[in-house]
Amino acid sequence: MKETLTDEKIKDLKQKANDIRKSIIEMLLASGSGHTAGPLGMADIFTLLYFHALKHDSKNPLWVSRDRLVVSNGHICPVLYATMAHAGYFPKEELQTLRKFGSRLQGHPHRQYLPFVETSSGPLGSGLSQAIGMAIADRIYGGEKTIYAILSDGEHDEGNTWEAIMLASKEKLHNLIVIVDRNKIQIEGNTERVMPLGDLKDKYKEFGWNAQEVDGHDFWAINNAIYKANKNKGSPSVIIAHTIPGRGVKEWENDYHWHGKAPNKAEAEMALVELNKIHA
Amino acid sequence: MLNQNLKLNTKIFNKDVEKITTRQGFGEGLLQAGMENENIMALCADLTESTKTNLFADKFPDRFIQVGVAEQNLASVASGIASMGKIPFITSFAIFSPGRNWEQIRTTICYDNQPVKIMGSHAGLSVGPDGGSHQILEDIALTRVMPNMVVISPCDAIEAQKATIACAKTKDPTYIRLARNNTPIITTIDTPFEIGKAQIVFVPEAGLAHVGIIATGPILYRAILAAHELEKRGIKVKVMNLSTIKPLDKEAVVALAKETKAIVTCEDHQVAGGMGSVVSECLAQVYPVPIEFVGVRDQFGQSGTPEELEKHYGVDTPNIIERVEKVLKRKI
After folding, report:
1. Angle between helices B71-83 and A159-170 (to 10 degrees)
2. What was the ipTM of the complex prediction?
3. Labelling A66: which of A114, A140, A208, B198 has CA 20 to 30 A away?
4. Which residues pair with B177 in a beta bridge?
């Protein structure tokens, strides 16, 4: 975990995130189905994790001492797959196989097909529990790793998530860092309309967590929050990351209709033109 | 007569046959497994004493996690622990685990093929006075349909202990079904046990058997009593202890069907989807014979003594005898 993030590095990360967004659009177009808004919204955070924050080795994916990253909201896997491909886990060409028969890139991550993902996911609400299990085991082994869990805001509707939030606090798992994608949309609309979540930072605090809130597109701020979370002792940490679903494609931003659908050819072309302009 | 080769409890037909709970056998097995392997862990959802997980928790507090009344979390935390090279046992009442947390077990344990061992205690009608809400009669059906899962239903405390120790050494997700009440000791420490191996515990004095009874769990005792009674009436019976329901010992089941051409299955569980279904699916494809099912027929339980409930729901010894007589009439 590195504290410093130079302007130069941030510029690189922004470029990388933009490339990853383009990959996301291309793979969703090829698959014809899948989730668009969440992956685009989380591209900056995944980029920061894989290209700066995480202790990992794409050439030795099962390195025992690696940090663990649990993606609980498996439906955003296009951003996970795209980032992993860009980080060298597998060829970028393979992204075109998303959701196709025989592909390692299943519609929702399946560890049997792609052993580089820490958990299979899709059904919401259990990823934090799995990360907690890893953090407990890591503590027994001597606590050299950081266990990261990415959660959606919508999956805080699940009772299982709150069971896990209580246990992490009880066990004082300071080797656990949760990043919540607070994009305020879920499949049927705005989170506050479907099931009001209110102030998640306050809620986590009430449950005994070290809680921070950041702009999920500000590399410096996210990195700083992760750095502080890693320094925190005696309690688990959560970073509520405010993100814009569909980020990078103005027409799609904050529109919940893009939660669970893929772009058609015209839409994808428009999006790629827009993303190409950002770092032309 | 009892199959002498298996070194079974010779006092089984005595009125004062020793009775111990299968959960006690599990608790002692877990403790022993924990002593043999430091990677064994245990997690419980506020039922440490009832599930006898306290034997392990007291000895190894650093390897025990109390998750509170939260069975969904129980299952998925164990998945995370297992992914790091540990062998976690999760314990609760079967109605809650694998009852309440079925999807977490499917996705985080079986889909990921993590070596989590699920102990569901207080299964079946034998919970008695607690009533139908707690008498899970569907757990075999729930677990046996999941790919990668091994399902074991031990017949007594000694077998439960052996099954616990044996499953601690495998990489498979495993469900072990346990009962609340004291039940007769059928086996001895010298009785062989292997996951996936069925055993013929009762055989005719001489000659081939007319009927084969296949039982799983403590109801095996009542199946043996039924066979003992039928023997006196000149009906030759073989009784199989099918403690591993999945993977099924097909060879043994088919051999019994070939010899007897008539099968009765016995379980403290719904007939639908349970062990009888497993046996039927096998025999229908390989060697079809008439089968009668002893089990609960699409009903929920209620409060009562175990004996009252066994009689009411048709899973006591006289019912087993009746089913044997019925299947003999259907025999071609």
Report:
1. 60
2. 0.95
3. A208
4. B120
Residue contact A163–B88, C-beta within 8 A: no
d(CA B102, CA B110): 10
A120 touches chain B (CB under 8 A): yes
Domain count, chain A: 1
Local structure of B195: helix, strand or coil:
coil
Of the pLDDT bands very low, low, confident and very high (cuts 50, 70, 90), residue A279 is low
| DSSP string covering B303-325 | SS-HHHHHHHTT-SHHHHHHHHH
Picking from A64, A111, A130 by the largest number of B CB atoms within 10 A of its own CB, the best residue to mutate is A130
Strand pairing class (A185-186; A189-190): antiparallel
| Given the residues B36, B49, B71, B267, the one annotated as active site | B71
The verdict on a CB contact (< 8 Å) between A138 and B77 is: no
For B268, other C-beta atoms within 10 Å of its C-beta total 32
b (16+ CB within 10 A) / e for B182-221: bbbbbbeeebebebeebbbbbbbeeeebbbbbbbbbbbbb
- Rounded CA-CA distance B83/A117 in Å is 11
Q: How far apart are CA B268 and CA B110, in angstroms?
A: 25
Domain residue limits at A265: 7-278
Task: Please indicate whether, in this complex, the C-beta atoms of A133 and B63 are within 8 angstroms of each other.
Answer: no
All domains of chain B, ordered by start, with CATH? Answer: 4-16+193-330 (3.40.50.920), 19-184 (3.40.50.970)
For residue A1, being part of any structural domain is answered with no
Instruction: Provide the whole-model pTM.
Output: 0.96
Q: Which residue shows structure tokens 């046992």?
A: B89
- The string of pLDDT tens digits covering residues A33-51 is 999 999 999 999 999 999 9
- Average pLDDT score, chain A: 96
- DSSP helix/strand/coil, A149: strand
What digits encode the pLDDT tens for the residues A113-142? 999 999 999 999 999 999 999 999 999 999
Decide if A49 is inside a domain: yes
From the list A123, A138, A163, the residue facing B73 with the nearest CB is A163
Q: Is A280 helix (H, G, I), strand (E, B) or coil?
A: coil
The pLDDT confidence band at residue A4, using thresholds 50, 70 and 90, is confident
Q: What is the CATH number of the domain that holds A132?
A: 3.40.50.970
| Residues A105/A161, Cβ–Cβ less than 8 Å | no
